[in-house]
Specification:
- By secondary structure, this protein is an all-beta fold.
- The protein has no helices and 18 strands.
- The chain has an eight-stranded antiparallel beta sheet with strand order 8-17-11-14-15-10-9-16, with no helix packed on it.
- The radius of gyration is 18 Å and the shape is globular.
């Protein structure tokens, strides 16, 4: 799904939220909605670090699976200073939706990574999870061994009652132990994700 907007202006973005079967999700059942905005193809050029926008006043979610978002000017800034008037830059708005979580809470410094490995060990006391359970994290966009953990993951292996592992798409770029600060989690729930591209057009200078 794609939208257009002029830089540093408000814009209205609409979407439908669906589960893996294509069924619409009642907005009232959502537990968390994570949003990250970055320049398309350049994940490191971030305009909005992962936020939970479920209670954001510029978002509405209805019972028919509809989402309406009033984008703010700071979300439509053009990063590339060489882009001229009338040209554009595409921004990817990456959403992760979570609902029906059986357990919600916070854990402290839960992540450990090994350089060049895709396996992340999670310290989650009394987690009660089994292999293939879902767990969603919000670490506020922190880099964890070079990884972004703000997403929904599948438990790969249960190590013990307080630890399990997950597997990321990219390998860690550093070894780190017990990091992440205060991390919000939602476990044993359901999730979906999607990306909305917004073409941001450079305005004529005033």
């Amino acid at each position: 799904m794609a939208f257009k907007a002029f830089e540093k202006t408000n814009a209205i973005v609409t979407a439908k939220i669906r589960d893996e079967s294509g069924a619409l999700i009642n907005g009232g059942s959502l537990d968390v909605v994570l949003l990250t905005i970055f320049v398309k193809g350049e994940r490191s050029q971030t305009l909005r670090v992962s936020d939970d926008v479920l209670a954001d006043p510029f978002f509405t979610f209805d019972a028919q699976g509809g989402m309406v978002w009033l984008m703010q000017p700071f979300e439509n800034q053009i990063v590339d200073d060489t882009i001229e008037s009338g040209d554009n830059e595409v921004h990817s708005c990456y959403f992760r939706f979570g609902w029906a979580a059986e357990d919600v809470g916070e854990i402290e410094d839960p992540f450990s990574t090994v350089d060049d490995s895709r396996e992340v060990t999670v310290h989650h006391p009394g987690h009660g999870l089994v292999e293939r359970d879902n767990v969603m994290f919000h670490a506020e966009g922190q880099s964890i061994g070079g990884l972004d953990m703000d997403s929904c993951w599948v438990v790969k292996e249960v190590v013990d009652a307080d630890h399990y592992t997950i597997e990321t798409q990219a390998a860690a770029t550093a070894t780190a132990s017990d990091v992440g600060g205060t991390v919000r989690y939602w476990s044993k729930g359901k999730s979906s994700s999607g990306t909305i591209d917004v073409t941001v057009i450079r305005n004529d200078p005033i």
